Amino acid sequence: MMTLKKTGFFLFCCACLFSCISLHAQQKDTLNKPVTKDSSRQDFVTRMQDFAKRSSEKSRAEFDADKATIAQIKTFDGILRTMQKAKIYLKGNLDTPGIKIDIKEIDEHYAIAGDGVFTNKGTAQTFRNLTATSKILAQLVNKANARKLKLDVRQQELNDFRYQLDSLLSVPALFKFPKDSTTLMKYMQKIKLVAYETVPIDSALKQASNNIQTLLNQVNLTVFKLQSSLEEIDGYQKEMASHTYKREFNNLWAPQSSYRPFGEILEFSKTKGLLTLSFYAENNAGKLFLLILLTATSFIYLRSLKSIYKESNLLKTDFDGQIVLRYPLLSAMLLATSLFQFFFLSPPFILNVIFWTISCFCLSIIFKDYISRYWMWVWRMMVVFFLIAAAGNLILQASRMERWFMLVISLLGGIMGLLTLIKGHREELKEKWITYSIAFMVFLELASALANLFGRYNLSKTLFISGFLNVIIAILFLWTVRLINEGLFLAFNVYSGQDKKLFYLNFERVGKKAPVLFYLLLILGWMVLFGRNFPSFDDLSQPLQNFFGQERTLGSYTFSINNLLLFIVIMIISVIVSKVVSFFASDRNVSSGKDKTERQGIGSWLLLVRISILCIGLFLAVAASGIPVDRITIVLGALGVGIGFGLQTLVNNLVSGLIIAFEKPVNVGDIVEIDGQGGKMKSIGFRSSVISNWDGADVVMPNGDLLNAHLINWSLGGNRKRIAIKIGIAYDADLEKCRQLLTDILNNEERISKNPGPLVHYEQFNTSTIDLSVYFWTKHIGDTSATRNDLIMSIVAAFKDNGIAIPFPQQDIHLYHLDQTGKSD
């Protein structure tokens, strides 16, 4: 077709050339002839114009046909590619049967969660049942929304395929048919083939879309049902919080208005409790793993600390002041579970019971034969009462049997608490604050019994568990603080390489009495765990949560106080971890009996480890808080300007610190000498390093000065040093015997290296002595002074025994007397 276009264009050009030649000839004739009208010339021009017009239209038509052909080819290729992708996508079917099973399982769990709230309501709702149901429904909503999201994505992708096919099949170029009959037949066959392949794919996409939509409608209904139920429970909880003292049941001695078998109540409570626990554990698997990791780390540290004290014979038989080292594993479990439980947000009560039970078990073993028998009996009884109350609190629906059970236990607990306070033995208490929690327990248990008698079930149950829980948490936290305090104090005693105010606490004042800060944190934690048992706790804490979680705008940057606090907390943890690593990698104050020549394994790599910890902490803090990276770029740019103008010295010291860390010209623990002053490298910091000189002072030297100074590092040569002792002997001494004596003395000294061996050299004839020098290498530079001292003593003794004199400097004066004649006598 392009050839025809080119031929037409060539004929059109020839015709134009021929017309031009003819017109030129006619113009020549007109010059010799008078001007007259020529009809034949006009006819020729008209014909040429018609010919040009027809040629132009023909060329335009051919161009449009070529353009349509190219568009048709591209469209057919797009249709084929889209159909191929659609086929592959349809083969990878979404697990719709699995989603149907999940929806069915969600409905089953909804029925379990609704027992006692939407079905089998009984006379009144209970706070614990509402809380458990709310947590289960929240997890079910999350699951249903996750399935809904998958279905929405699938539906969107199916619609996209159908839209792409419809768009390609409606391209206008497909409907421009060739004028040639043969070409038209071939084109129609191609369209028929494409239509034949497209129709099944389009039908399959449509069918899949309908199936997804049907399933999506079912999921949407489930989500709506769950969310409506959550809103209804929220209404129940708010009503319960606002009517704390409302009567729910008749007086305990009055006839029962409704009845549900107690065994059935226990069964559905167990099922609902385990379901809540499984959901929460599944969503917080990472935190549970961190809890195990923290326990293992604490155990390793406490075990190593105990080994140090045992090797140093510092471990007491009664573990007074060292109770944290008695059972390192149990201490680690107690510390980890007591502290890390606050990282679990809104945990189910059954998980808290597991944590508290583990802590009680560990503390009971630690207490054995450490506290008095009387208080050990009190502790065990408190644990038994708490476990009974916790088991009762896991029962999610009220019953007359449970109410009588609560009444008996609360009265027994109150009576036991009163007897404990009356009987005394307070002088045997390790922590005096325990008596306050016992007195508070007595008040709560008696109030619980009174509320129970007059039908205030929810209030009675809250006071019932809170009374025993208050004592258990108080004792656990008091001893947690005590064990932490002991661990830090014991670590301070055996580690001395770093700053004593590592945690911004004065460790010299840490002893049996913990810092006030620890007790303030204890009270705060006690208030949180104690308050969770009351329905109004969420209402009181919600405004505070909203305040911290509300997004605020500063310019174009949106932030919340939670994000800022998260950033600060992560950075503080990074700094503390960095300092802890530095602290516990330093030299031990207590000798462990190992060889003094042992080099520290971490050395100057400590600085790189600290930098890595801080960098990782900064990255996590920025990522967790959502701080925009472009803002950080602006800050770094501003810092760059500041560095260029006024921070050259600081940057020089920081860079020098990195160079020291990488090149390691000096290591922590090395014996160094700078400008004639010797000492031991104590630490290498970001900006400066600390050198302990032989006088006991710590010299703080900027890293830039340290790197530029003429540094002598004795430790790089193996901590050896060559010593020279100069001796002068009398001229009449036996030189060979003297050499042999000195050689024997040097060879018998164990602190002198045998390779290279010692040397004895006679050097010169002095005024009154023959001078010799003894050269030898000490195995360790720390033995230099003692070895020189002992050798001088041995040499003097050996020379005396063998009659070798060490003369002192002397001069002979000769006097000459002159007579009167000027001659000497």
TrEMBL record:
Instruction: Give a single Pfam family match.
Output: MS_channel_2nd
What InterPro entries would the database entry show?
LSM_dom_sf, MS_channel_C, MscS-like_channel, MscS_beta-dom_sf, MscS_channel_2nd, MscS_channel_C_sf, MscS_channel_TM-2
Q: How does it sit in the membrane?
A: Multi-pass membrane protein
Q: Which SUPFAM superfamilies match?
A: Mechanosensitive channel protein MscS (YggB), C-terminal domain, Mechanosensitive channel protein MscS (YggB), transmembrane region, Sm-like ribonucleoproteins
Q: Which domain of life is it from?
A: Bacteria
Q: Which positions fall inside the Mechanosensitive ion channel MscS domain?
A: 649-715
- Locate the Mechanosensitive ion channel MscS C-terminal domain: which residues? 724-806
Residues spanning the signal sequence: 1-25
Annotated localization: Cell membrane
Gene3D superfamilies under this entry? 1.10.287.1260, 2.30.30.60, 3.30.70.100
**Which Gene Ontology cellular component annotation is one that this UniProt entry carries?**
plasma membrane
Keyword line: Cell membrane, Membrane, Signal, Transmembrane, Transmembrane helix
* Molecular function GO terms recorded: mechanosensitive monoatomic ion channel activity
Which residue ranges traverse the bilayer? 285-302, 323-343, 349-367, 379-398, 404-422, 434-455, 467-495, 516-534, 564-585, 605-627, 633-655
Q: Per the similarity annotation, which family is this? A: Belongs to the MscS (TC 1.A.23) family.
Name of the molecule in the record: Small-conductance mechanosensitive channel
> What is the protein's species of origin?
Pedobacter caeni
